[in-house]
Amino acid sequence: MDEEELKKAERIALKMLVFRDRSEQEVRQKLVREGISASVIEKIVTKLFDYGYLDDQKFAQQLALSLLKSKQWGFIKIGATLKARGLSSELVKKTIYKLKENYSEEETARRIMKRRFPHFKPQGASLKEKQRVVQFFQRRGFSWETIYRVLMI
Q1: Alpha-carbon distances, residue 44 vs 11, 34, 35 (angstroms)
Q2: How far apart are CA 42 and CA 28, in angstroms?
Q3: Which of 78, 23, 14 is nearest to 56 (CA)?
Q4: What is the pTM of this model?
Q5: Mapping DSSP to helix (H, G, I), strand (E, B) and coil, where does residue 18 land?
Q6: pLDDT tens per residue across span 50-94
Q7: DSSP, residue by residue, 62-97
Q8: How far apart, in Å, are the Cα atoms of 26 and each of 39, 56, 85, 87, 101?
Q9: Do the Cβ atoms of 12 and 30 come closer than 8 Å?
């Protein structure tokens, strides 16, 4: 194992983590793209976990909460984003479960509805208008059940 390669890998990983938390998979992918050997990557990732710089569970919870509050996404899109960041399906399920315990997707959708579509009345809306609102919520990752309850179609 080359000492210079080890220092380079550590520098790359720490530089990534300075800006924001990352998943283990994101760090691994970056190090592979930089041409770092597998043995060095293992050593660096282990070191980062030992120091507490890498924590996929904490990362998942922070990212999910951030997406819920700032982007006001539904649980489906939050889960897909966590999965895309390289987190395990099990961790994604646990994170979404914890979110559901503390936050209501329906309340989030209702707040968006009031702000984004203040004059929308499902009873008097045309099919095209209803489709537009439903598709808006689907793109944001809200479940059909939540959309239905909010719009009472």
Answers
A1: 10, 14, 14
A2: 9
A3: 23
A4: 0.87
A5: helix
A6: 999 999 999 999 999 999 999 999 999 999 999 999 999 999 999
A7: HHHHHIIIII---HHHHHHHHHHTT--HHHHHHHHH
A8: 17, 10, 7, 9, 28
A9: yes
